[in-house]
Amino acid sequence: MNSLPFPIWALCFYKDNILISGGGGGKAYGVKNMLALYKAEIPLKTPIKEEDTGTDLVGSLEWLKKIDIIIAGIRKDILIIRISPKSDIEKVHRIQCEEEKSISYIKGSADNTMLLEGADEGSIKLWRINGGDKSLSRITEMKHNSSLTGIDIMPNNLMVCATFKDKTCRIYEIPSGLHMKTLYFSRKCDPQGLMFKGCCFSEKNDYLYTIQTGLKAGSYFTKWDVNKGFHPINTKQIHSGQSCVLKGSKSGKYAAIGTSDGSLKVIDTQNLSLIYSHLEFSLPVTALDFSMSEKSIFAGSADYAYKRITVKESSKVCYFVIALIIAIIIPYLFY
């Protein structure tokens, strides 16, 4: 198993590199809080650049490719980072959000003109990214009296989705921030409902994907039809235990899920087929990201370990070829 000298809490691909946040409280606690930029190869070698973040632990990272900046969530603040031609990690802006306890979720809009930021206590803010200096201007705020577990913004910038610990998935309108709809999910083994642990929209704005989890019920992946009032189309159980991280690919073709027992799952969102499932870590998966080509996924864990896997398409074509060969050969066996 490949590992780093610190627990991994957030990561994102940056071109052919991977930016990783890790640490354990800073020097005073024995493990420095770090931002480290590596060449995205396995195993990871000496960092191209690393920065001691002191007492600040970066909890979320998102690369906005079209404007070439990285957004980071640090405690109560939003940090805008640029990687220089010399691979220096440059801090462009730091926006203080004093009313929040901790920023846990960062998500850029598909066109990179807006930023969605979510805090632990259920506060969600939508920001406009100003074109010139990449500063932020607040558009609206959405609040719910429950801890947040995931956020996403629809690619056409018309809706926001947010999931909470009170077992709700809430849809909000952009730019007003008006609450439009609440989704719930339950099973016979857990009629009180399962907790939503993340959400992501499809590239064409027609589907919403969510992960739900329960202590006894396991984990379920659901596909909702946006154009039919978020009607649930299909649900598949993907794990017998609880899940903690959901990451959709930019095209919406795949979804990666990290579980509490360290398993990594990859789903083809078209037919909900499970195309990868393996126990990778000894502790929960803490961070996931897809490469630009979506052909690989990088995952990290609190146990210091990391893994890069190759995404393989659903094997429907293979099954068809095998069935065709059997259909041709079997008649000759009984001739």
List the helices and strands and how they pair.
Blueprint: E1 2-3, E2 8-14, E3 17-22, E4 34-39, E5 49-52, E6 58-64, E7 69-74, E8 77-83, E9 89-96, E10 103-108, E11 114-119, E12 123-129, E13 136-143, E14 148-153, E15 159-164, E16 169-173, E17 179-183, E18 195-201, E19 207-214, E20 218-225, E21 231-239, E22 243-248, E23 254-259, E24 263-268, E25 273-279, E26 285-290, E27 296-301, E28 305-310, H1 316-333
Antiparallel strand pairs: 1-28, 2-3, 3-4, 4-5, 6-7, 7-8, 8-9, 10-11, 11-12, 12-13, 14-15, 15-16, 16-17, 18-19, 19-20, 20-21, 22-23, 23-24, 24-25, 26-27, 27-28
InterPro entries: Sec12-like, WD40/YVTN_repeat-like_dom_sf, WD40_repeat_dom_sf, WD40_rpt
Membrane topology: Single-pass membrane protein
Main location: endoplasmic reticulum
Describe this structure in words.
The protein has 335 residues and is mainly beta. It has two domains: 1-146, YVTN repeat-like/Quinoprotein amine dehydrogenase (Methylamine Dehydrogenase, Chain H, 7 Propeller); 185-289 and 306-335, YVTN repeat-like/Quinoprotein amine dehydrogenase (Methylamine Dehydrogenase, Chain H), CATH 2.130.10. 5% of the residues lie in helices and 53% in strands. It is built from one helix and 28 strands. The strands form seven sheets. A four-stranded antiparallel β-sheet has the order 1-28-27-26, with no helix packed on it. β18 and β19 (207-214) form a beta hairpin. The N and C termini lie far apart (53 Å). The model is unreliable at 316-327 and 330-335 (pLDDT under 50). One of its GO terms (molecular function) is guanyl-nucleotide exchange factor activity. Keywords: Endoplasmic reticulum, ER-Golgi transport, Membrane, Protein transport, Repeat, Transmembrane, Transmembrane helix, Transport, WD repeat. InterPro entries: Sec12-like (IPR045260), WD40/YVTN_repeat-like_dom_sf (IPR015943), WD40_repeat_dom_sf (IPR036322), WD40_rpt (IPR001680). It is found in: Endoplasmic reticulum membrane. The chain crosses the membrane at residues 317-334.
